[in-house]
């Protein structure tokens, strides 16, 4: 369908809806549902799927991964269908920010990787799929989740350009920069050789 012209009020509406959708802390929710305690006091203290996995509860980690990616994809697709491409990108960016800085948790959230991948899959599934494969390849070779995240983020703008979605390059660059920023401590540990591997309880 042809893109709809998005007015400022429409974009603002989708920014708000995207933020609220992204700010739902599914890691915290599933940790409580499965009796895993306060996720912010486990491992790295992060609210994402990787830290849920450190509890040893794989179903909770899988559900967190699906829902954290799904919330970004859902609100992005809703905006795309109802208000067009500009609104979809606004909702996508806001959902990522919502995950990283959720109002419900005092603006201390996750690192946004699953939400980032869900957004890319919603906006252009070939780009999203390429980013997911990049994550799997980098994480599989290194056995370090953050390496997968950083690899996928770095390559996302490249995949958007190569796969003919130049309209997504700027958004992918912004999201990738935010992913790298949120992984600042991981980068320090990677340089020091102390970054925990996938499945580690640290």
Verbal overview:
The structure is a single chain. This protein is mainly alpha-helical and 202 residues long. It has one domain. The chain has ten helices and no strands. It has helices at residues 8-22, 26-33, 49-53, 58-83, 85-100, 113-123, 125-142, 145-162, 169-182, 184-192. Helix 4 packs antiparallel against helix 5 and helix 8 (145-162) packs antiparallel against helix 9.
Report the span from N to C terminus.
Answer: 48 Å
Portion in helices:
55-70%
Order of helices and strands: HHHHHHHHHH
Coarse structural class: mainly alpha
The gyration radius over C-alpha positions equals 16 Å
Number of strands: 0
Bin the strand percentage: under 5%
pLDDT below 50 for ≥5 consecutive residues: which ranges?
none
Number of helical regions: 10
Average pLDDT for all residues: 92
**Tertiary shape:** globular
Provide the number of structural domains.
1
What profile does the largest beta sheet have? none
Family: Belongs to the PlsY family.
Protein name: Glycerol-3-phosphate acyltransferase
InterPro entries: G3P_acylTferase_PlsY
EC number: 2.3.1.275
